[in-house]
Write a structure and sequence with these properties.
homodimer; 203 residues; mainly alpha; 9 helices; 67% helix; elongated
Chain lengths: 203, 203
């Protein structure tokens, strides 16, 4: 699940710059968890990390870049931690289902992702390249997982490539309904039901 | 598919006010189709409709309210025109599939919907009530369609209620991938494949 990108590169590549950059991202994630997507301001992050606002802007030139950085860090965590070790490239459909369970326990980061995904499809939005690139590697990864577990055409009759688009769409789409009505929408159960249908596996 | 709402009510209920309001919405839709979501400004709408900006604000107190008005008008059209006559309340799964085909031919209105859906899940956003309400009636309508055509538990083993959430999520989620990569994502074909899986029907 390796991926490249041309946005939000760290300004410094030295280990001290990298450590400070990671600290800003962790603090930003904490602010989002506490105050929500709209509660994230560069001023609040700067205060908590002990930098001037200008100091934060040195690492992330805008609030959008900082939000993309937070999501990118989540991606790195998601493809390493629950999927069995750093830089893991192999995962299973069961791991995907676990990821949806993890998401159901972190509404504010899901809200950040979903809000930015919505903005990203408007013209020239800074998050556009991040999401386009992310869709490519997410679909490729899921497609290769489905092919490995169920073959080119799965027992359902759906191809691995189609299945990857469908499961990705379901994850994204469920999140909007869930954020609007968390009591009514059981994301993990629904996602589990759909992976069963899309693959055609028995349980 | 009747629905109530407590936002974006017309300011005037007289027929002249209603006609002017409808004209503003049609013009706004045209501006979106030509210039995209970000290209819609109250100034441009006012110019084309021959009102001052203040005049437009009399009908729609903010750009967000105007966008919600455009989407609400699309909803009214969608549940009447392709589904067989004014105020139609009955529709089929085939009508839903046709709706996805219609959407694939109107990227700018889909972009407007998807961008506003993204914003709507942030705190206190003016589009929040519209989307929450819309999800309720869309799911209820699809659920009742699925129940009518396939029974409480469909041949797939999925209930009508679960199927309604899944198909709604698929429509929303596919649109984001399609807007980022229209060449790669064949929305109508994928949605057709999904309705077949979710219902368990043969073709």
């Amino acid at each position: 699940m390796a991926h490249d990108s041309d946005t939000a590169r760290p300004v410094r590549h030295g280990s001290r710059g990298r450590a400070r950059r990671d600290e800003i991202l962790s603090v930003a994630l904490g602010v989002i968890a506490e105050n929500g997507y709209r509660g994230l301001t560069l001023g609040e992050v700067a205060k908590r990390v002990g930098l001037s606002q200008q100091g934060v802007l040195h690492y992330f030139p805008s609030k959008e870049e900082l939000l993309i950085g937070v999501l990118r860090q989540r991606d790195e965590w998601d493809v390493s931690a629950p999927f069995g070790g750093e830089n893991a490239v192999e995962f299973t459909v069961g791991d995907l289902e676990m990821l949806v369970e993890v998401n159901a326990a972190r509404p504010e980061i899901v809200r950040t992702f979903s809000a930015l995904l919505g903005e990203s499809i408007t013209e020239e939005h800074p998050a556009g390249p991040y999401f386009k690139d992310r869709y490519d590697w997410v679909r490729d990864s899921i497609e290769s997982t489905l092919r490995g577990e169920f073959g080119e055409t799965m027992p359902s009759g759906i191809t691995a490539a189609q299945g990857a688009i469908m499961l990705t769409a379901l994850m994204d789409g469920l999140q909007y309904q869930w954020l609007h009505d968390p009591e009514k929408i059981d994301m993990p159960e629904l996602f589990h039901g759909l992976t069963r249908l899309v693959t055609g596996r028995e349980s």
